[in-house]
Amino acid sequence: MVNDRGKIKWTSLMLPEHVEMLQQMGREIGKATPPIMDEQQLEELEQKVRYIQVGKTKASMMYRKGRNVENASGIVTGLKQSEQYLLLDTMDRLYPIRIPFDHIIDITLH
Question: What pLDDT was estimated at residue 12?
Fold first, then answer.
């Protein structure tokens, strides 16, 4: 006999529609639609990207990753204007994060 008093007890009492609705809600938690940025905000981001000095600039970034919004802090170790991305080296990851320019939502320079 299983002593689980959580999902196992209540799943048999739920209608299939309710189970499906709860699963859908679980998939949507944590997903956020990225904000729509106007020209002025895009210009400010572009100026911040131009100000970045590779290997010296510490930055905190908010960026889109799929449908989610991620936050990362670290040192910008690479900036590829031709391919439109930058590399952010964080302390908690082995490799730098490759962030495309069009996925960046906000940059805070330190």
Answer: 65
Q: pTM here?
A: 0.64
Domains contained in the chain, CATH given: 39-109 (2.30.30.520)
Query: What DSSP string describes 5-32?
Result: -SHHHHHTTS-HHHHHHHHHHHHHTT--
In residues, how long is the chain?
110
Nearest to 106 by CA among 50, 41, 52: 41
**Which phi and psi angles does 22 have, rounded to 5°?**
-65, -40
Give 89: exposed, middle or buried? Use CB within 10 Å, 0-12, 13-18, 19+. middle
φ, ψ of residue 57 in degrees (nearest 5)? -90, 125
Q: How confident is the model at residue 49 (pLDDT cuts 50, 70, 90)?
A: confident
CA contacts within 13 A on the Cβ side of 90: 11
User: What CA–CA distance (Å, rounded) separates 57 from 60?
Assistant: 10
Tokens of 72: 């990362």
